[in-house]
């Protein structure tokens, strides 16, 4: 949202007036924020590129230099996901929503995919005769592994699921903290947005207080530490929901991000680039959301990008397991591929992972969300003459109220994707 422009404050069922000289935004765009769905794919691709680089798949020096230049900071894609998660969950939170309904949707969203990949990773480990700690496997199954600082334990079974362990902690906390966010003054919310990057920066000297063997876990894995990014996104969403957010438009935010990425990759130490990228990611997220709310053009809500964003969660869970399994099975683990074969193998991994992610999204994630994500209401007896009710014993729901409720459901749909 640009400084000086009229504030956008959208309640469910209320249409946002278009700024002068611009087309009115559709309710669907404002509710679902499809640009953020498209951006999810970019973040997932950054993480994929980072892992492809660290696995040394590309051995040719010239090609490897390109991979390193593009994806050296790709691990920060997880930082993007955490900020985005806080933003969309606060944006889509419904008035009067029950905590248990929120927790049920979150569990149904991430646990079926996690369970499939957990079982698959265990089968792969058995195939290669890898030693498996039963306790580590149980920790991973229950998504508790991010709380265990022992080296290797938080990366157990399906390594990338450590981030789901963090997300579960965020989901547990949000319904408890949301009333405080709703009542907080804008100045306090702005203070939170500004303080989080500074706290991320302060973590680097603070890790000296932690045993050396646990420092990576403390700064990169420990759920309360990683929740800083989540709450940064949550505070920004509450400011935007009230029409109090001030930041650059999508073009300006994109330029800031690209410049930050290039400068950080070339000249900035890790403790500083994590701070700078947190700011850059937040500016892009808020600018893309604002573009959807106001009906502005956005390159991130094209149909292909939105589909890629929808499968990005499955893609993220699958990609490391696919690459490590194939490389170990073919005997190419750690050796790399010379010449053009290196980039070709990376592209092949990308396509195979995308295919498996599409299948997982289509046949596991989507059916489970449709079946279990929303609370089922008891059917109204035919011929009873009673008006439809939202809950047993509640007041009759009038047609206009039903339309408003439908708008609210659409607004929450993004968080269920």
TrEMBL record:
Which UniProt keywords are listed? Acyltransferase, Hydrolase, Membrane, Transferase, Transmembrane, Transmembrane helix
- GO BP annotations, alphabetical order: polysaccharide biosynthetic process
- Keyword Transmembrane on this protein? yes
- Where does the sequence pass through the membrane? 41-59, 71-93, 114-133, 153-174, 186-204, 274-293, 305-324, 344-364
Is Amino-acid biosynthesis set as a keyword in this record?
Answer: no
Q: Name one GO molecular function term.
A: hydrolase activity
Q: What is this protein called?
A: Peptidoglycan/LPS O-acetylase OafA/YrhL, contains acyltransferase and SGNH-hydrolase domains
């Amino acid at each position: 949202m640009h400084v000086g422009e009229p504030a956008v404050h959208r309640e469910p069922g209320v249409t946002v007036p278009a700024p002068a000289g611009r087309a009115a935004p559709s309710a669907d765009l404002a509710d679902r924020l499809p640009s953020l769905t498209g951006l999810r794919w970019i973040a997932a691709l950054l993480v994929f590129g980072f892992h492809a680089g660290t696995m040394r798949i590309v051995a040719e020096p010239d090609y490897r230099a390109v991979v390193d230049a593009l994806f050296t900071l790709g691990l920060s894609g997880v930082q993007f996901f955490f900020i985005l998660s806080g933003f969309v969950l606060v944006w889509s939170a419904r008035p009067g929503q029950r905590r248990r309904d929120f927790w049920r949707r979150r569990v149904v969203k991430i646990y079926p995919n996690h369970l499939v990949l957990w079982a698959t990773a265990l089968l792969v480990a058995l195939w290669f005769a890898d030693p498996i700690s039963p306790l580590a496997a149980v920790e991973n199954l229950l998504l508790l592994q991010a709380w265990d600082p022992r080296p290797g334990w938080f990366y157990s079974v399906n390594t990338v699921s450590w981030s789901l362990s963090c997300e579960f902690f965020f989901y547990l906390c949000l319904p408890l903290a949301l009333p405080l966010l709703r009542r907080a003054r804008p100045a306090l919310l702005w203070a939170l947005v500004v303080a989080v990057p500074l706290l991320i920066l302060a973590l680097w000297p603070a890790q000296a207080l932690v045993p050396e063997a646990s420092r990576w876990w403390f700064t990169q894995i420990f759920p309360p530490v990683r929740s800083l990014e989540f709450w940064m996104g949550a505070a920004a969403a509450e400011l935007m929901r009230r029409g109090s957010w001030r930041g650059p438009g999508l073009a300006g935010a994109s330029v800031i991000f690209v410049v930050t990425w290039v400068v950080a990759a070339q000249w900035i130490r890790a403790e500083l680039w994590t701070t700078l990228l947190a700011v850059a990611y937040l500016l892009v997220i808020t600018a893309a959301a604002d573009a959807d709310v106001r009906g502005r053009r956005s390159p991130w809500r094209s149909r292909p990008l939105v589909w890629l964003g929808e499968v990005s969660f499955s893609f993220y869970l699958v990609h490391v397991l696919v690459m490590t399994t194939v490389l170990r099975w073919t005997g190419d683990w750690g050796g790399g591929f010379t010449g053009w074969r290196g980039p070709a193998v990376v592209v092949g991994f990308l396509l195979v992972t995308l295919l498996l992610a599409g299948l997982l999204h289509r046949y596991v994630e989507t059916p489970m969300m449709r079946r279990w994500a929303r609370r089922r209401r008891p059917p109204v007896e035919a011929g009873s003459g009673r008006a439809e009710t939202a809950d047993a014993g509640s007041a009759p729901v009038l047609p206009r109220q039903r339309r408003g409720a439908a708008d609210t459901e659409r607004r929450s749909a993004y968080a269920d994707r």
